[in-house]
Amino acid sequence: MKRMFLCVMAMAALAAPAQAASLLNGSFEDTPGFSGKRNWQVYKELEGWTTTRGAGVEVQSNATLRGIDAVDGDKYIELDSHGRNSNSQITQAVEFQAGQYELSFYYAPRTNRGGSNGISYSFAGDLLGKVAGPQSLYKKGQWSRVSTVFEVEEDGVYDISFAAIGRQDSYGGLIDNIAVSEVPVPASAFLLLGGLGAFGWMRRRKA
Q1: pLDDT tens figures, 75-92
Q2: 69: in domain
Q3: CA gap 160, 175 in Å, rounded
Q4: Coil, strand or helix at 37
Q5: Where do the H-state alpha helices sit in 66-145?
């Protein structure tokens, strides 16, 4: 009976979710000093985010570009902005526990200029992916959800980064509603663990 109890405890421990990573200000609504008279503003730092390359992050509101409204709230960002040599990168340090996570965000090309709307996204300095438009999947001014799954091998604080790539012409990709969520352990893993535990207990009883 004791071994069965230990098996159940092990399953419960596996079933308990790791502490979800908490990414701040993923929709860029926390923007001190943003003026209603000016529909965009460039920041070197925002709640949760720091500019790690370039001139800064340009926060835009629903009134900035005709026909483009935020996915969540009334603000979103552009990283290729604010004059020449303007490709910027923003970074946030996030605390993770070991496990699998999904990084998701919404992306829209600002213009139909090829090679001008690219965005890369990284975890702990390692490239997770790139997105660019316009193309069949990503059309000018239309939001599309982008996501990727990555592995965190050890508990710790790791950087999540987004960067403008391509032509530096102050017209770039738009980003909104960035989120990080834990990928749950498949139910089959619980069944396998339970089966192995019960099998071991039965063998010990026969012995």
Answers
A1: 999 999 776 668 999 999
A2: yes
A3: 14
A4: coil
A5: none
